[in-house]
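input
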Amino acid sequence: MIETFVHDRAGPARTRGRTTVDEASFTALFNAHYGPLVRLAGLLGADDPEDIAQDAFARYYRKRRRLRDDAAAFAYLRSTVCNLTRNRRRHLGVVRRALPVLFARSDEDVPADFTALVREEHRELLAALDALPAKQREVLVLRYWMDLSEREISKVMGISAGTVKSHAHRAVAALQGSLREKA
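output
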């Protein structure tokens, strides 16, 4: 019955063509942006960056027909990754405070491939970046890794451009101080 309604209303060729075009454009979007979104989630401090990126694409896939501007798909995905990472870090923080023994980390817990990928000169910077408050870290990652403008960052994070400037200034000062202490 539903097939008949769809068939009568849109016609079989247009329905099939639209599905094919939608699937092809979604596949192209996924292939082009999955890797950068995984890296973004990782830089924002996600424990599971691949899951965050996949969840962002799943949310986009469900809402893609309701979005007005196809060109804004990457911006939507980027904002979703930021929000999901923030929410998961917040949730994990609560869980870790409640169950500290289960989540105690040591150097042995770090995967060997991660250690191999992160070169020694980046470790101090990543540690200093990780020590920043979440919003400051987000601003720096979006500004210097994603190369977004202050206006774009304010849209992604849902804060004013002045607050973006303030977070960036404080974060850079904190990073400089932290790295000077270690040098």
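quick obs: Confidence is low (pLDDT under 50) at residues 1-18.
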